[in-house]
Amino acid sequence: MIQDTETIDEFLAQRSVDVEQAIREAAAAEIMPRFRRLGASEIDQKSGPHDLVTDADRNAERYLTKELAALLPGSVVVGEEAVDADPTTYDAIQGDAPVWIVDPVDGTRQFVHGDDGFCTLVALVQRGTLLASWTYAPARGQLATAVRGGGAFLDGERLFAGPPAPGRDLEIATSHPDYTTDAQKRALLGLRVDGVAPRPCGSAGLEYLAVARGELDATAFSWEAAWDHAAGLLLVEEAGGAHLTLTGEPFRVTGGNTLPFTAARDAATARRVRGLLAGEA
Fold first, then answer.
1. Is the predicted pLDDT of residue 149 greater than 70, yes or no?
2. Residues 203, 144 share a domain
3. Within a 10 A sphere around the Cβ of 48, how many other Cβ atoms?
4. Which of 11, 44, 165, 238 is buried most deeply by CB count within 10 Å?
5. Is residue 106 in a domain?
6. 148: pLDDT strictly greater than 80
7. Is residue 241 classed as helix, strand or coil in its secondary structure?
8. Where is the signal peptide (predicted)?
9. Sequence-ordered strand ranges (E) for 108-184
């Protein structure tokens, strides 16, 4: 089993292109042939009308599970659809082995409706530390990558989020009300103040990419599922951004966070948004 960080660093230096290829191939084989061609029998509901799953999700995750585990011997895969089938598989994030965290189609609702705002998310994590991430939007032809300490990139171009422009409202993507508790709804109401422009989020992965690009100022999310956040949080960090939970601590992919939490394009914006969520500003 590979457990040494230096060994994983070597793997990332030598095999990142193979990870990218596996992600592109999964999308080409299982996702894009179904884009705008889904039949009713290929779409199911999970927990509610906004929580959809398709054959593209399931088949792409199976493809990635096989390929990623083979690329890094001793690693395990935690995928959204596998966890839906067996919640105990999520526990692997707490272990010592390197973990691939996979969301095969992030933004399934958009995918189902023929909108190009969906992506495939893959992150490599060990002992709770985000090591690398891939955000692939196949319908847009975009691939964003990040390696801890090595920067964030979109199609090979370095990303720097930078601070928001002074004098304009902060644009913040927020959780859908269906996925918030009453206490979280009250916290999110803290964003409805002058100088802040909250809006409902789309694909979490693409919202994180927008933060890393400096096109969106922050997110405010109220759920912990690692497959939605792991890839994007590292992308934002490596682009110069920051993330904070309601208690002022960075978000932990291993769980136990106080929610909602924010990811923002710079540390000052993260602190401001956290303060609004906590009712301190």
1. yes
2. no
3. 9
4. 238
5. yes
6. yes
7. coil
8. none
9. 119-126, 129-137, 142-147, 151-154, 157-158, 170-174
The pLDDT tens digits of the residues spanning 221-237 come to: 999 999 999 999 999 99
Residue 98 dihedral angles phi and psi, to the nearest 5°: -60, 140
The answer to whether residue 220 is domain-embedded is: yes
The boundaries of the domain holding residue 180 are 170-277
Q: Cα–Cα distance between 65 and 59 in angstroms, integer?
A: 10
DSSP labels, 3-59? --HHHHHHHHHHHHHHHHHHHHHHIIIIIGGGTTT--GGGEEEEEETTEEEEHHHHH
Q: What's the pTM?
A: 0.95
Residue numbering of the annotated binding site for Mg(2+) = 80, 103, 106, 228
Question: Is residue 63 pLDDT above 90, yes or no?
Answer: yes
Rounded-to-integer distance, Cα 236 and Cα 159, Å: 9
Judged against a pLDDT cut of 60, whether residue 240 lies above it is answered with yes
Using DSSP, state whether 263 is helix, strand or coil: strand
Tally: H helices and E strands in the chain: 8, 14
84 with 39, same domain? yes
Domain count, the chain: 2
Q: Which residues are annotated as a binding site?
A: 80, 103, 106, 228
Question: Do 153 and 198 belong to one domain?
Answer: no
Report pLDDT digits (tens) over 108-144.
999 999 999 999 999 999 999 999 999 999 999 999 9
22 and 121 within one domain: yes
